[in-house]
Amino acid sequence: MLSVLEGEEVRRRWAGRLLAQADAAARVREIVAAVRDEGQAAVARYTRAFDGVDLQGAGFRVTDREIEAAYKAVTPELLEAVRRARDNIAAYHRREVRGSWMEADDDGTILGQICRPLKRVGLYVPGGTAAYPSSVLMTAVPAQVAGVADIALATPPRRDGTLPPLLLVAAAEAGVREIYKMGGAQAVAALAYGTEAVLPVEKIAGPGNIYVTLAKKEVYGVVDIDMLAGPSEIVVVADASARPDWVAADLLSQAEHDALAGAVLITPEEALARAVVEEVARQLETLPRREIAARSLENYGAAVVVPHLKAAVELANALAPEHLELYVADPWAWLGRVENAGAIFLGPYSSEPLGDYWAGPSHVLPTAGTARFYSPLSVATFMKRSSLIAASPASLQAAGRFIQALARAEGLEAHARAIGLRLEEGVKDEPRSLD
């Protein structure tokens, strides 16, 4: 159950949640190594063990027939919701697109940057206790906007060996047809190393549980990853203007994801904190996923009473949460003080689920304090950049002695000679000084 705690206790608990992830590291390394060495046979073995389904004979890849059947199973209202959400996400991420550029200096030097999409990426979408078609859209649409040619999506199968129809429809609407029924660390390893059934990718993106997150960490370097996005988090900074039932509902919206999820209210109003604790208990009684939410709140949830809003924002910055709600009378006045957060929601009507499903920014966000240095998934996640340098004879002649001096100061004589040989040739252009 949600408790009223001190800020330092909350920081200790959230740090403890990070330490708890180390317990699964050895198991993840074992799974990743098995898939690397044995290929799809290891994926099949772990799928039987963890998901309770044998896909060796039926195959792991979703067929066109399965996608067609999924469309028939989805209501027109849900199909419209998927399409509208997809369009919102695409419109937001198109604003992020940055093209290649080149600029010529007066001395003839040309500098620039070439931006290209990755050719093949793997997307991981969580499953198991819930289905997340929203995560399909929030990863696949930015990849499509970036121009990625090949997208492979992996998600855990249900016990009957199928995938949720809405998830398949969301993938198809986002332009993804290469879909695999595999989850967990074994799916991450299959995407990274490739198997008889799956071609390897260049980057893996998408959220997941502790095993998925640790597996992404394990394969990093073989492939790139978007971030270490673990269990969900929300921090609500609220003042006396906040409604306790709305705050409670927002906290529960993240607590129901995972027993490791964190949900914290920070407020200078003790009466609000007490009211939210009571409201959380009331709403929890009728929540379908109440057992998961209750464990999350018991271990990583809290209502923290602080002296003033400045202290509330300072504690929020220290936690660096995935989602931060500024549920205060004048949220824009406090926005400038926010330093660390994956996504920031301003005002009473900007409830966190708006970001999960509809607004446009990807809901794949840094967690576990990594918002201090990670950014949300974006078009840039699926791009790579090459620097462009084209020197003119005059520019090299003018800069040569400085380059040689720096190279020799580092003890790299071959570097200096590579420049010196060109300077000895001389140039027809009049040398230009860098002074």
TrEMBL record:
<feature type="binding site">
    <location>
        <position position="415"/>
    </location>
    <ligand>
        <name>substrate</name>
    </ligand>
</feature>
<feature type="binding site">
    <location>
        <position position="232"/>
    </location>
    <ligand>
        <name>substrate</name>
    </ligand>
</feature>
<keyword id="KW-0368">Histidine biosynthesis</keyword>
<dbReference type="InterPro" id="IPR001692">
    <property type="entry name" value="Histidinol_DH_CS"/>
</dbReference>
<feature type="binding site">
    <location>
        <position position="257"/>
    </location>
    <ligand>
        <name>substrate</name>
    </ligand>
</feature>
<comment type="pathway">
    <text>Amino-acid biosynthesis; L-histidine biosynthesis; L-histidine from 5-phospho-alpha-D-ribose 1-diphosphate: step 9/9.</text>
</comment>
<keyword id="KW-0028">Amino-acid biosynthesis</keyword>
<feature type="active site" description="Proton acceptor">
    <location>
        <position position="322"/>
    </location>
</feature>
<keyword id="KW-0479">Metal-binding</keyword>
<dbReference type="InterPro" id="IPR012131">
    <property type="entry name" value="Hstdl_DH"/>
</dbReference>
<protein>
    <recommendedName>
        <fullName>Histidinol dehydrogenase</fullName>
        <ecNumber>1.1.1.23</ecNumber>
    </recommendedName>
</protein>
<feature type="binding site">
    <location>
        <position position="186"/>
    </location>
    <ligand>
        <name>NAD(+)</name>
    </ligand>
</feature>
<comment type="function">
    <text>Catalyzes the sequential NAD-dependent oxidations of L-histidinol to L-histidinaldehyde and then to L-histidine.</text>
</comment>
<feature type="binding site">
    <location>
        <position position="356"/>
    </location>
    <ligand>
        <name>Zn(2+)</name>
    </ligand>
</feature>
<keyword id="KW-0560">Oxidoreductase</keyword>
<feature type="binding site">
    <location>
        <position position="410"/>
    </location>
    <ligand>
        <name>substrate</name>
    </ligand>
</feature>
<comment type="similarity">
    <text>Belongs to the histidinol dehydrogenase family.</text>
</comment>
<feature type="binding site">
    <location>
        <position position="209"/>
    </location>
    <ligand>
        <name>NAD(+)</name>
    </ligand>
</feature>
<feature type="binding site">
    <location>
        <position position="257"/>
    </location>
    <ligand>
        <name>Zn(2+)</name>
    </ligand>
</feature>
<feature type="binding site">
    <location>
        <position position="124"/>
    </location>
    <ligand>
        <name>NAD(+)</name>
    </ligand>
</feature>
<dbReference type="GO" id="GO:0005829">
    <property type="term" value="C:cytosol"/>
</dbReference>
<feature type="binding site">
    <location>
        <position position="254"/>
    </location>
    <ligand>
        <name>substrate</name>
    </ligand>
</feature>
<feature type="active site" description="Proton acceptor">
    <location>
        <position position="323"/>
    </location>
</feature>
<feature type="binding site">
    <location>
        <position position="356"/>
    </location>
    <ligand>
        <name>substrate</name>
    </ligand>
</feature>
<feature type="binding site">
    <location>
        <position position="323"/>
    </location>
    <ligand>
        <name>substrate</name>
    </ligand>
</feature>
<keyword id="KW-0862">Zinc</keyword>
<dbReference type="GO" id="GO:0051287">
    <property type="term" value="F:NAD binding"/>
</dbReference>
<dbReference type="GO" id="GO:0008270">
    <property type="term" value="F:zinc ion binding"/>
</dbReference>
<feature type="binding site">
    <location>
        <position position="254"/>
    </location>
    <ligand>
        <name>Zn(2+)</name>
    </ligand>
</feature>
<keyword id="KW-0520">NAD</keyword>
<dbReference type="GO" id="GO:0004399">
    <property type="term" value="F:histidinol dehydrogenase activity"/>
</dbReference>
<dbReference type="GO" id="GO:0000105">
    <property type="term" value="P:L-histidine biosynthetic process"/>
</dbReference>
<dbReference type="InterPro" id="IPR016161">
    <property type="entry name" value="Ald_DH/histidinol_DH"/>
</dbReference>
<dbReference type="Pfam" id="PF00815">
    <property type="entry name" value="Histidinol_dh"/>
</dbReference>
<dbReference type="InterPro" id="IPR022695">
    <property type="entry name" value="Histidinol_DH_monofunct"/>
</dbReference>
<feature type="binding site">
    <location>
        <position position="415"/>
    </location>
    <ligand>
        <name>Zn(2+)</name>
    </ligand>
</feature>
